Amino acid sequence: MVGFGHNVKPRNRPRMRFFNETTSEYVQFISMIFEIMGITLAYIEIRYKPLATRIEAKIMAEETRLKDFAYQLIQNKLSVSLITVFITIVFFIEIPYLAGLFDKIIPPDWKSVEHIVIWSTFPVIFLFVAWIAAIFLGDFVSWLNEFSEGHAIGALGVVITFMGLMGDTYQAITILVNH
């Protein structure tokens, strides 16, 4: 077959299984952190209610500050252009690359350029996701405050602990599948 990209050898990538032991080990550490954070927040809500109220007020104040900053960014045409370019790069270059769609197109001697482009965008992606998560956290805490009748930090602790328990469930399934 003659055409662009047909003479390039595909990279040898190991086949990825969903339930593998390496991922399970990493999930174990992350889920343990979630469980400790969640239990600590629930304990603070039960034993130190004034501290829980201050934590909730700080989360709400940060949400307001981040929303105001986001509104200012949207008003600035340069920042809107930069955000548009960044989102375009992530959705049309980074995600397809990570999915392996460019394996037959990119020559093997471009490895260093690939790594520079991919790893230089990860910090920006992380900051963007953290920023959006902080905004949603404020809204979620407001909802939890209404849902739990004034015990938002304790309810947030229960939700975070549940996320850790989901990681423990993944570990248990990995053990059952592989042994």
Question: Can you tag this structure with a few keywords?
Answer:
single chain; 179 residues; mainly alpha
Describe the fold and architecture.
This protein is an all-alpha fold and 179 residues long. The protein has one domain. It is built from 5 helices and no strands. α1 packs across α2, α1 packs antiparallel against α5 and α4 packs across α5. The longest helix has 37 residues. The radius of gyration is 22 Å and the shape is flat. 11% of the residues are buried. The mean pLDDT is 81.
Write the layout of secondary structure elements.
Layout: H1 21-47, H2 49-75, H3 77-98, H4 111-147, H5 152-178
Helix pairs in contact: 1-2, 1-5, 2-4, 4-5
Task: Tell me briefly what this model is.
The protein is mainly alpha-helical and about 180 residues long.
**Shape category:** flat
Number of domains: 1
* H/E element sequence: HHHHH
Low-pLDDT regions: none
Number of strands: 0
How is the biggest beta sheet arranged? none
Q: State the separation between the terminal residues, measured CA to CA.
A: 44 Å
Structural class: mainly alpha
Helical content band: over 70%
Per DSSP, the total helix count is 5
DSSP strand content = under 5%
Mean pLDDT: 81
What integer value in Å does the Rg equal? 22 Å
